[in-house]
Amino acid sequence: MLIHRPRRLRKNAIIRELTAETRLSTDMFIYPYFVVDGKDITHPIAPMPGINHFSVDKLIKDVEKGLKLGVNKVLLFGVGEEKTEDGSSSGNEGTIVARAVRELKKQFGDNLFVITDVCVCAYTTHGHCGVLHDDYIDNDSSLDILARMALAHARAGADMVAPSDMMDGRVGAIRTLLDKEEFENTSIMSYAIKFASAYYGPFRTAADSAPQHGDRKSYQMDYRNKREAMREALLDEEEGADILMVKPALAYLDVISNLRQQTKLPVACYNVSGEYSMVKIAAQHGLIDEQKIVMENMHAFARAGADIIITYHTRDILEQGWM
Ligand code: PBG
Ligand code: ZN
Asked: pTM surpassing 0.90?
């Protein structure tokens, strides 16, 4: 006689649903957008099928559609912004991204939660995520510029800022300036554990933010390191981060899982451009079932411990009713 028959709990769909350990919810998803200058622009981003560059007017139309499906949290990237040597143009009131935030908040108010990426790589002539001094990205002089960028976004009405630069101490610098300017309720989701990854390839084409020379290894993390990853995340927590993010996601499920055990803060993961494009393009070639692969991946993030998933698949998941 067999006492243990785990298959009993898999007998039919109803009992499988009853005993499912991981469940996704619409509320977990954050949808990224790339915003460009101009009017009436919906320009497909070739390496990321299904994702577009939008001018602000078209962005508003698309967000309006998304809201009806429950996409009420967006992460904005400005593309084609003014570039300077030190990236300080990122702190201007008139950046594309600041204008987009103002328009979105004017249009949708508290029905839409607006998050902005805070990093200068789309604003520096050299494409690095901080100030360049003698071929090295200088940490401390970058902090002030990043904090001012975050402040410009907060002033425009951003609900949350998401620093993605990986300078030491930037969460603290941003928190201090925001508080001083009375934006104590603007939250910070830090890209706490961001690895130097080849999975950002399609994004760098989309955002025109690839470094002109060298790589990002002196500031983004070495993917061999998990203890250091925890150290990075816990430092951001000490400095005042409200949410800790791991990026990329698919190849880093162990890191998500480890972080979930180390912090009481919400844990987010970023299912990045390269991960997205691999799925979309394989599906276009009929090699995989897109819906099944996407949902398997999303459940993997949740099972690993992610409370929040940032993914370009958000619209497909909700529009096509994949949940
Ligand atoms: C900017 C930034 C990057 C991504 C998010 N913010 C690119 C990079 O660090 O090179 C990647 C997002 C993606 O690949 O989807 N620092
Ligand atoms: Zn950057």
From this structure: yes
